[in-house]
């Protein structure tokens, strides 16, 4: 069992979400989340010029307004830093990640905080963590040339140092129906074995 589990939901659905149901099942296998973020219910703001300016100001030089602009980002980063396992709900919308999840990503990918630049390129600073991503789609086959979501999530997580990433997929539900969810549940059982 994992000590600290962070759960990130990103479905726009308040109920009946496949990715939420998959994360529920994953929690039954690995333990309940100690921290939860439902980005569909309470979206985080997108970054803006004020945030960017504050982010690129040295921490000790930030004024109160800049500290305030980064406060949510600091909180989200802290949740990641404190977690051993990150569970992410990834419904595929229009071939990619939901806007709410992209906004979260923009707030947690911070140079000098979750990654750093070196002579050989960027290095993630959140090593030693595991992520399980529950994916659902109506028609997009996971891993296909039109799936711009799962490769992006693997890259982003690796970029910040999380390289132990597993995907559980209930894709192509429009044509597969319940079979897609049943396949995903079998993947979850195999992950937890």
Topology as a string of helices (H) and strands (E)? EHEHHEHEEEHEHH
**How much of the residues is beta strand, in percent?**
15-25%
- In the sheet with the most strands, the strands line up as 2-1-3-6-7
Q: What's the number of helices?
A: 7
Overall pLDDT: 95
Write down the Rg: 17 Å
What does this structure look like?
This protein is an alpha/beta fold. Helix content is 40%, strand content 20%. The chain is built from seven helices and seven strands. The strands form two sheets. A five-stranded parallel beta sheet has the order 2-1-3-6-7, sandwiched between helices. It has a two-stranded antiparallel sheet with strand order 4-5. Strand 6, helix 5 and strand 7 form a beta-alpha-beta unit. Helix 1 runs parallel beside helix 7 and helix 2 crosses helix 3. The radius of gyration is 17 Å and the shape is globular. It starts with a strand and ends with a helix.
């Amino acid at each position: 069992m994992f000590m600290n589990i962070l759960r990130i939901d990103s479905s726009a659905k308040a109920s009946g979400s496949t990715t939420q149901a998959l994360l529920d099942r994953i929690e039954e296998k690995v333990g309940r989340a100690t921290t939860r973020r439902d980005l569909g219910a309470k979206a985080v703001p997108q970054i803006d010029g004020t945030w960017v300016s504050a982010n690129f100001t040295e921490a000790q030089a930030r004024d109160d307004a800049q500290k305030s602009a980064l406060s949510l980002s600091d909180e989200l980063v802290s949740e990641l830093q404190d977690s051993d396992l990150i569970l992410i709900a990834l419904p595929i919308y229009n071939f990619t990640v939901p806007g709410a999840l992209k906004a979260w990503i923009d707030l947690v990918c911070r140079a000098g905080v979750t990654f750093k630049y070196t002579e050989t390129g960027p290095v993630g600073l959140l090593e030693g963590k595991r992520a399980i991503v529950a994916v659902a789609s109506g028609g997009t086959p996971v891993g296909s040339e039109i799936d711009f979501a799962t490769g992006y999530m693997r890259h982003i997580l690796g970029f910040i140092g999380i390289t132990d990433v597993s995907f559980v997929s209930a894709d192509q539900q429009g044509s597969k129906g319940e079979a897609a969810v049943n396949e995903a549940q079998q993947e979850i059982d195999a992950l937890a074995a």
